[in-house]
Amino acid sequence: MTKPILIWGAGAIGGTLGASFIRAGHEVIFVDSAADHVAAINAKGLQIDGPIYQDTVKAKAYLPEELEGTFDRIFLCVKAHHTAAAATALKPHIAADGYVVSAQNGLNENVIADIIGKEHVIGCFVNFGADYLEPGVVHYSGYGAVVVGELDGKRTPRIETIHALMLQFEPKAVLTDNIWGYLWGKLIYGALLFGTALTNDSIADVLANPAYRPVLTQLAHEIGKVAEAQNIVTEAFNGFDPAAFAPSAPAAETARSFDEMVVHNRKSAKSHSGIWRDLAVRKRKTEVDAQVLPVVEIGRSLGVPTPLAAKVVTMIHEIEDGKRPLDLANLDDLARAAA
C-alpha cells in the first residue's frame, strides 16, 4: 500500500478529515480545484479553527491537473454536484487495488461507481459540522456521526482498515453492513436541512419552531416512503430517528426526535447548514440537484409522489437565482403547498 492518503476536495469535510489524519501521523496530499486555496495550503499550511481544536497542518496541495501518480486510499470530499467531474479526473490516479471513500452528502457512491467501477468504491456517511472559511482556513465546528461500509455490506480487510483510520478522527465512528440505510437516513435529514435553509433562522431555531414541524414532518415522510419502496431500512444518528418520521409514527415520537435534533444542533458552533452558507454567504449553487432532485426522480420511477420535495427544489433554485429571498415565510409557502 502506498503511504499518502489522497484527499480530493480540501474544503469543509476534506480539510477537516485530512488535517485530523495528519495530526494522527499520516501523510496526506490534498487536491482542490480552487487555486487560491491550494496556494494558501502550500504557502502556510491548512489552518483548522473552531472549538474542537485549533492547529495548522503542513501538507502538499495540488490542482487536479497538477497531480501525478496513483494512490490506494482516496477520500472524495467535493460537493455532490461536482462528483461526476471529480471522479472522472481522479480515475487515472486510482491504484489497481485502490479505492475511493465517498465522504460527501447524497447518493454519490452510485455516481462514482458508474465512472470508476463499483469494486473501487466504499460508502461513507458523515454528519460532523465544518465550514470552509477562506483560502487555507477551515472551521471544524462540531462532532457528528461518522459511518463507513462496503456497498454490499460485506466485512472486508479494506473496510476494517478504513474504519480503523476513521476511529482516529472520530472515536465513535461506526462500521456498518447497512451503509445505504445511513445514506438514505441522511437524505431525510438533509431534506429537513434544505427546509431550514429556506430561511435565515438557525437549524435549531427552525426545528424547534412548532409552527413548521408539521410541514417538515410531511417532507420527511416523502423521502422515507421512497426509501421504503426500495426496501431500505434507514438508520438513526445524532438525534435524528427516521422511524420517528415514518407516516405511522406517533406524534410524540416525532416531537422527541425534533427535540433531540435541536439539542444536538445547539451544541454545535455551526448554527446554519452548508446549504444556507452556499445561498447566503458564498452566493453559489447548492447541492439540491444532487441530493433532493434524485429522490424526486427515484420516487417518480417507483410511483411514489414527492410534491413537497419537488417544491423545495424549485424554491432553492429561486433563491439561487435571486428570485426569492431567504425568509421564514418560505416555510409558510411550503406549508400551503402541502395543504
Automatic annotation (TrEMBL):
Residues 178-320 form the Ketopantoate reductase C-terminal domain. InterPro entries: 6-PGluconate_DH-like_C_sf, 6PGD_dom2, ApbA, KPA_reductase, KPR-Related, KPR_N, NAD(P)-bd_dom_sf. It holds the Pfam family ApbA_C. Pathway: Cofactor biosynthesis; (R)-pantothenate biosynthesis; (R)-pantoate from 3-methyl-2-oxobutanoate: step 2/2. SUPFAM superfamilies: 6-phosphogluconate dehydrogenase C-terminal domain-like, NAD(P)-binding Rossmann-fold domains. Residues 5-152 form the Ketopantoate reductase N-terminal domain. Transmembrane segments: none annotated. GO terms for cellular component: cytoplasm. It catalyses: (R)-pantoate + NADP(+) = 2-dehydropantoate + NADPH + H(+). GO terms for biological process: pantothenate biosynthetic process. Catalyzes the NADPH-dependent reduction of ketopantoate into pantoic acid. Belongs to the ketopantoate reductase family. This is 2-dehydropantoate 2-reductase. It comes from Rhizobium jaguaris.
